[in-house]
Amino acid sequence: MDEFAVSPASRRSVRDWLVDIGLFLFAAAFGIMTAAERIQMPTQDVSPWVFQLDQVIGVLGCAALWLRRRHPVELALALVVLSAFSELVGGAMLVALFTVAVHRAARTTFTVFTLSLLAALVYAVLRQEVGTSRELLFLLGVATQGSAIGWGLFVHHRRRLLLSLRESAARAEAEAQQRAREAIAREIHDVLGHRLSLLSVHAGALEFRPDAPAEDIARAAKVIRQSAHQALQDLREAIGVLRAPVGESLQPSLTDIEELAAESRRAGMRVNLTQEVPGTVSGRSGGTAYRIVQEALTNARKHAPGAQVWVHTTGTPGQWLSIEVRNSAPATSPPAPGEGSGQGLVGLAERVALIGGRLEHGPTDEGGWCLSAWLPWPV
């Protein structure tokens, strides 16, 4: 069974009814015109009973076309056999050949077509008309039957192409949705990971210094409130990416790294920022550079408390943008291994690879950690 075959239980749509009626009328008109031509040829050597039998077969053949969707091959074979001696069933036989070409595989189609050519040859021998050679009669049958098969194959392959395009579009949409989900997950991880680590630092300071001066407690509480508010704002922006049209979502850029470093300094980190970037880096490269620095600072705050952090960006427009974030060995004991899931660096690697960049990271000889990235800088 071909994928375009109609099951017996399926219902005809309005379009199906219109097509079926149109093909039925074509077959009936073909038979009527052929019969009228035969009636106008009194000198034709055809027995009356043969002509009457031919009319009955033509009517039954047209009526049988209503079964063409359920039994296309069986109907075509029956009409091909009848066409070997009946000329009025020719229209119905052409419709059956067309149906097989549309709804069945090419191998089945060409098998039925070959049998129809044999039937045309038999008809040319048995029903030779006055003034018409057998060769011409046979070639006429080949031409009409070949046209029906050719038209059906065109419709068949066009449907297959449309089906393939719909499937490709569905796969592309599903992949785009998956990429969007992954992107928003990375965005939320990067944003909330940074903000929550800031909250953790200030909340930890309040926990371990309950006797701190009231001014310090108020200052830390203010920072916690601001960080929580900013985390909510960042989360709303990240979720808004799902609703925003492509290209309209707001992304951070390389110039926002200064504020990122300032926030980390306010949280007690020692961050040394050096930017040697001529011009502005926007778009995906700028946003990716921002996320790299954000993730690196978050990891340094979590896993290397009290360490000195150096952030260095450099690049040449039209070539590469280089980002390096390096920290010294932690000043105090880092938290127990396993506190982080490690998904941040995995997400960064995926983000960098998507824009054709390269990411490297690992421990340094001094006991610290270094994260380096090279991103394309289109102009």
Pick out its properties.
transmembrane, ATP-binding, disordered N terminus, EC 2.7.13.3, 379 residues, five-stranded mixed sheet, Heat Shock Protein 90, kinase activity, alpha+beta, rod-shaped, 2 domains
**N-to-C SSE series?**
HHHHHHHHEHEEHEE
Query: What is the straight-line distance between the termini?
Result: 55 Å
Given the helix and strand composition, which structural class is it?
alpha+beta
Low-confidence parts, pLDDT < 50 over ≥5 residues?
1-9, 245-249
The mean pLDDT is 81
CA gyration radius, whole angstroms = 39 Å
Question: Which descriptor suits the 3D outline?
Answer: rod-shaped
Strand content: 5-15%
Largest sheet at a glance?
5 strands, mixed
Q: Care to describe what's here?
A:
Helices cover 63% and strands 10% of the residues. With 379 residues, it is of the alpha+beta class. The chain has two domains: 14-170, no CATH class; 252-379, 2-Layer Sandwich (Heat Shock Protein 90). Strands 1-2-3-5-4 form a five-stranded mixed sheet, covered by helices on one side. Helix 4 (90-103) runs parallel beside helix 6 (134-208) and helix 9 packs antiparallel against helix 10 (343-354). The longest helix is centred in the middle third of the chain and has 75 residues, at 134-208. The radius of gyration is 39 Å and the shape is rod-shaped.
Secondary structure layout:
Blueprint: H1 14-39, H2 48-64, H3 72-83, H4 90-103, H5 106-126, H6 134-208, H7 214-243, H8 257-266, E1 270-276, H9 283-303, E2 308-315, E3 320-327, H10 343-354, E4 358-363, E5 369-376
Brief synopsis:
This protein is of the alpha+beta class and 379 residues long.
